Amino acid sequence: MTRARETRRPQFLAVGLFLSVLLVKSKQLIDHMKKVWNLRGQLEASTLESEAGRKFILVFSEEGDRKHAILAGPWQYKMDVFLVESLAEGDDPSSVPFTHVPMWIQFRNIPFYLLTKKLAFDLGECIGSTLMVDNNARGSISDKFVRTRAKLPLYRALRMELVLVDEITGEEVAVQIRYERLPNFCLFCGFIGHMEARCDVPMPDRKIMYNLKLRVLPVHFEFPHTWFLPDAMGHASPQRSVAWPWRAPTPASKEEKQDVP
């Protein structure tokens, strides 16, 4: 009976890709990911022969563990990114595309009166595909910023800034971009997946165009303070209606005053 139950145990499939030029031992990499994911169930991993040490078939015993591995990245091993995508039963694992990596992104240097959830969403769409928006602004009272979780395309270089037009003054504002838990990337070309020694940029054209300031810690380590973030310009959140400024009561009309004994 026990063996029969084991054969009917559901399996949830995924494919993992270690996007790196490093030569690592597969067992050490998978053991590290098991600890990082803090799995509730079991995980079996096997290496694809065509890409030994780079791509893996991951078999989870719990669906929640698979969802966590796919959605809660970016994951790292030796600072290089480890990507996870779902695999439907019967599909060829070697054909699963790895085109994006999920990441929390900070947008800084924005005038405080422009900070809204809509702006955070739109900025995420400018550099990737927005997944969700932090409901609060973060940072110090004089240096607030917004956060967006987005799927960043791996086929594009990292963005260092965006130009925003101030709707109040009409002036252009250079919005600084920072990436939480950013894996290794090339300081020449700005792509995730390799560093300068393996960059394809021709030697005469190699210049340091990026810096490590793009990488920041997650906000809960540095910025415990949160600030109210409205949905859009000129709109207040329904849950925060009690926070409206105090207003004097409307004076009674002459007729109403005469009725008062």
Automatic annotation (TrEMBL):
Keywords from the UniProt entry: Signal
* The keyword Signal belongs to this UniProt entry's keyword annotation: yes
Residue intervals of the Zinc knuckle CX2CX4HX4C domain:
170-200
The signal sequence is 1-26
* PANTHER family the record matches: GLYCINE-RICH CELL WALL STRUCTURAL PROTEIN 1.8-LIKE, OS09G0268800 PROTEIN
Q: What is this protein called?
A: Zinc knuckle CX2CX4HX4C domain-containing protein
Organism, scientific name:
Panicum miliaceum (Proso millet)
